[in-house]
Amino acid sequence: MKKWGKSSLFILIAAILLITAACGSKTKEDAKEEATGTEQTASGSSETAALKDKKIALIMQFNTGTFSAQYIEGVKEQVTKFGGKVQVFASDNDLAKMSGNLDAAINQGFDGILIDHGQAAALEAGVKRALEKNIPVVAFDADLKVPGVTVLSQDDQMMASKTLELLGQDAGGKGNIVKIWVAGFAPMERRQVAYKAFLDSNPGIKEIAAFGTANNPALDAQTQMEAILKQYPNKGDITAVWTAWDEFAKGATRAIQQAGRDEIKVYGIDMSDEDLQLIQDPKSPWVASAAVDPKDIGRVQVRYLYQKLHGDKTDDSVVLDAVLVKRDELPKEAINTTQLNEYIKGWSGRTQGYADWMKELEQAK
């Protein structure tokens, strides 16, 4: 057996010490990394936990009809999934009341504010005050251009164009039409742009009457449409009715049905369960509508608000694409808007605004 000399023994001991030191150093580094990872995970969970139990205010210019009802359902559904609570402030189409409701929500210390419709003159001062108090704001179809506020809208010109193009095709490029529309609302004004372009490019189609009001819109549309039908009593006098809002379409549809003028077709914008029933009815003059799932609108709006609460950077403008719903693409048996996605591709299930961390928030107890 070979004997170890002093020098060999010294080298062996040094090597052992070096390996031990290296292993010790690696262990400390690993421990540091593990501690940092644990700290980051804890931080992430803490940030998510801080978003639970938020109080959200929904300030609405009006909450008329089933479209608004389903939009509110979407808002409440998503906020509830995130562990928060919603309070709806209805303003009865009174902009002064809407401004007061916005001030009330700020004074009551809500964590976030959602706005549905409204005009800048009534809302801008209150919105700026909310931002000064670090209360994030996300609006839908509101005439607002305040830095830091995300505004959602439907692609209104596309919606109008889709229904008008179908009207033109069904009418063979000629005929007399009635428009039901009201000024002063951002989405209506955008839809009017497409309507004007349609008339300019279709000289064979003439507008013979136009009316509309936002107060009791369905009832008013029905009453005024009844008067128009008496003014144009003969079949062929009116080819179609184009409506810029589903509430108008309901009123026009009822008037036409009651008058027995089944040769007149109705084209609308926006969609709810009640609207779908009317479109599916083979005896109804309402044959098509361009729309975005109102529940989806509410869900997406809430997601962008929670992004702001989370500290994420959000776009100033978010546009929701619409689909065209036609009677001839629907089943004969009655369905509701929850089932509509089975027949109309792209109707529901939008993931816009959904961030990865939101899954953790929805699963948090």
TrEMBL record:
CDD domains found in the cross-reference section: PBP1_methylthioribose_binding-like
This protein's GO cellular component annotations are:
outer membrane-bounded periplasmic space
Q: Where in the cell is it found?
A: Cell envelope
Q: Which residues form the signal peptide?
A: 1-21
One Pfam family, short name: Peripla_BP_4
Keywords from UniProt, A to Z, are: Signal
What name has this protein been given in UniProt?
Periplasmic binding protein/LacI transcriptional regulator
Which lineage ranks, top first, belong to the organism behind this chain?
Bacteria, Bacillati, Bacillota, Bacilli, Bacillales
